[in-house]
């Protein structure tokens, strides 16, 4: 699919970002950049077939999200720290995959749980203020796909409840992501 087709598929052709959403959209664009790079990092762990299978699917979707966000948000509003989001994303994907499939699934589940809340907050805001129905629809579609990733990771993680280190790691990802969002809203 060409970029043009992808943008059409998400109904994101003619969206003007309202001023009240610019900072949020900057963080969305930064976040989708990080997401693409998480899977680029995970791809390096080529010997783990399970990780490769999950990565192949998720990577495609995250790439679509990034194309859509790049299209909607004018370049002058992009984060100045894209290099940093790429490095952090790559590192997170690479190292969590290095620790094996389960740990990778725990990581993806935590990341996507954060992302779901992040998008949902914006969807609620747009809904309450009836600001841009078109943008709301795009964010809703992206959010649904993040939830699919989250469920996929949870399913493949296996039945065991998270142990204390995995719980610690999930919390760390939650607070790290929220810190990154605050930074990328501004820079
Ligand atoms: Fe995404
Ligand atoms: Fe995602």
How would you concisely characterize the structure shown here?
It contains 7 helices and no strands. The protein has helices spanning 3-9, 22-43, 49-72, 82-98, 101-128, 133-157, 164-186. The structure holds fe (ii) ion (FE2) (2 copies).
Explain this structure.
- The chain is mostly helical.
- It has a single domain, classed as Heme Oxygenase, Chain A (Up-down Bundle).
- It is globular.
- The structure holds fe (ii) ion (2 copies).
- One fe (ii) ion binds next to helix 2, helix 3 and helix 6.
User: For this structure, what is the CATH class?
Assistant: Mainly Alpha
Q: Radius of gyration, Cα only, in angstroms?
A: 16 Å
Structural class: mainly alpha
Proportion in β-strands: under 5%
Q: What order do the SSEs take from the amino end to the carboxyl end, as H and E?
A: HHHHHHH
Bound molecules: fe (ii) ion
Q: Which fold name is given in CATH as the topology? A: Heme Oxygenase, Chain A
User: What is the approximate shape?
Assistant: globular
Please give the number of β-strands.
0
Task: Please count the helical segments.
Answer: 7
Annotated CATH architecture: Up-down Bundle
Q: Report low-confidence residues grouped into runs of 5 or more.
A: none
Total domain units: 1
Q: Helical percent range?
A: over 70%
Largest sheet: none
Mean pLDDT across the residues is 95
Distance between the termini: 32 Å
Notable traits:
binds fe (ii) ion, 187 residues, mainly alpha, 78% helix, Heme Oxygenase, Chain A
């Amino acid at each position: 699919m060409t970029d043009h087709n992808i943008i059409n598929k998400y109904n994101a052709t003619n969206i003007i970002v309202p001023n009240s959403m610019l900072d949020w959209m900057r963080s969305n664009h930064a976040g989708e950049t990080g997401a693409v790079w998480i899977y680029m990092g995970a791809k390096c762990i080529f010997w783990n077939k399970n990780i490769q299978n999950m990565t192949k699917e998720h990577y495609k979707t995250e790439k679509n999200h990034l194309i859509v966000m790049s299209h909607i948000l004018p370049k002058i509003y992009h984060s100045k720290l894209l290099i940093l989001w790429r490095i952090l994303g790559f590192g997170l994907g690479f190292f969590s995959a290095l620790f094996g499939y389960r740990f990778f699934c725990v990581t993806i589940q935590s990341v996507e749980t954060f992302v779901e809340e992040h998008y949902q907050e914006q969807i609620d805001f747009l809904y309450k203020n009836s600001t841009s129905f078109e943008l709301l629809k795009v964010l809703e579609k992206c959010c649904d796909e993040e939830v699919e990733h989250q469920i996929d990771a949870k399913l493949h993680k296996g039945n065991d409840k998270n142990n204390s280190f995995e719980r610690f790691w999930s919390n760390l990802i939650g607070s790290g992501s929220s810190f990154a969002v605050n930074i990328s809203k501004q820079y």
